[in-house]
Design goal:
The chain is an all-beta fold. The chain is 3% helix and 44% strand. It has a four-stranded antiparallel beta sheet with strand order 1-24-23-22, with no helix packed on it. The protein has a four-stranded antiparallel beta sheet with strand order 2-3-4-5, with no helix packed on it.
């Protein structure tokens, strides 16, 4: 069972828009939520320990760069890591002197054209492991005659040199048939700090991929117990109809698919999100969502429906549960985070 608990109401000033893909990061120490205003390049700090009905930001810091930031990490009070998808650039930003102290890129100039740079977001974050920075992403534009081994999802920056390597092609399920471009090819990832494993969830695959520190990949069953069938498009990859955005979108909406893989460190378990075709309407936001729970060894624990209208790419997890942004909130002065208590 999933029960809906308290709703967090965060105050938004006249500049701030909390969208479905606004980058956020929760810090257990201090019980604070950091949100990056990627329209105006500002970092907002919300103290969640305050029990007021509406929580105002305690600090707002303007980031003096012109690039569009799609993801960030708060390292310390004076250091942020900012990621710009355009150019796949990673920027170390000093908030004391408001300057970029280091620039890195995920672009590997020696690799083939099908190596995807990170499409970093809360549901597919960047991982900082010892001397490597790791991210997952996707590229569209498949062809029937390409080598699937070369279409990699993972890019790694090796420090301190900044060399880039590409790894992890799609699972074998994707090596044949047409899976409809971006929506069915978006990778979702999480990281287990205890085992040091990265876990990869792909929308069409009932299995998840577990990637260890030696880049060995093991597939584990992580399927719903519902009776579903995930089918590919009935078109070749070279068919010109694939470029019809509405056609491919309707294929995705009407096809079951998996989504986020989330590691809950507070309970040492995993959650995987399933989306089902909507009963009515035909918009992407109308897909029915449920959450599947697994223990630390991926033993199935159960699954239950999630509340409607959640922004599945805008969430954070605490000891109290998972908080998702309410995408149907109409109050422009408030961002509402819905608390989902998992009892599976």
């Amino acid at each position: 069972m999933i029960t809906q608990g308290d709703t967090l109401n965060l105050y938004l000033d006249s500049l701030m828009v909390m969208g479905i893909s606004t980058p956020v990061e929760y810090h257990e120490k201090g019980n604070r939520l950091y949100a990056f205003d990627n329209y105006n390049n500002r970092l907002l700090e919300y103290p969640l320990s305050i029990t007021k009905e509406i929580i105002h930001p305690e600090n707002i810091h303007r980031i003096r760069i012109k690039k569009k930031i799609s993801y960030f990490r708060y390292l310390s009070p004076d250091t942020l890591i900012l990621y710009s998808y355009k150019g796949a650039e990673l920027l170390y930003y000093n908030t004391t002197n408001d300057q970029i102290s280091q620039k890195l890129t995920f672009i590997n100039k020696t690799t083939g054209n099908h190596a995807a740079p990170p499409y970093a977001n809360t549901a597919s974050p960047l991982f900082f492991n010892n001397s490597t920075i790791i991210g997952f992403g996707f590229l569209i534009g498949e062809s029937d005659n390409e080598n699937p081994v070369g279409r990699t999802t993972c890019s790694i920056i090796h420090l301190p040199e900044g060399n880039v390597h590409n790894r992890i092609p799609y699972s074998h399920l994707y090596w044949s048939h047409n899976w409809g471009g971006s929506h069915m090819r978006t990778p979702y990832t999480t990281y287990n700090e205890q085992t040091k494993n990265i876990l990869l969830s792909l929308p069409a695959d009932h299995n998840i991929q577990v990637i260890d520190t030696n880049w060995q990949v093991k597939e584990l069953p992580a399927a719903t117990r519902k009776n579903i069938c995930i089918t590919s498009m009935e078109l070749s990859k070279d068919n010109k109809k694939v470029s019809d955005a509405e056609y491919t979108l309707q294929y995705f909406i009407n096809t079951p698919s998996y989504r986020n893989i989330i590691y809950d460190k507070y309970h040492d378990r995993y959650y995987r999100i399933l989306e089902l075709p909507p009963a009515t309407h035909r918009q992407m936001a109308d897909k029915e969502t449920s959450l599947i729970a697994f223990d630390k060894d991926f033993k199935y624990l159960g699954e239950a429906s999630l509340p409607k209208a959640l922004a599945l790419d805008n969430f954070f997890i605490t000891t109290k549960g998972i908080y998702f942004l309410n995408a149907h909130n109409k109050d422009q002065n408030i961002a509402q985070y819905v608390q989902c208590k998992i009892e599976l």
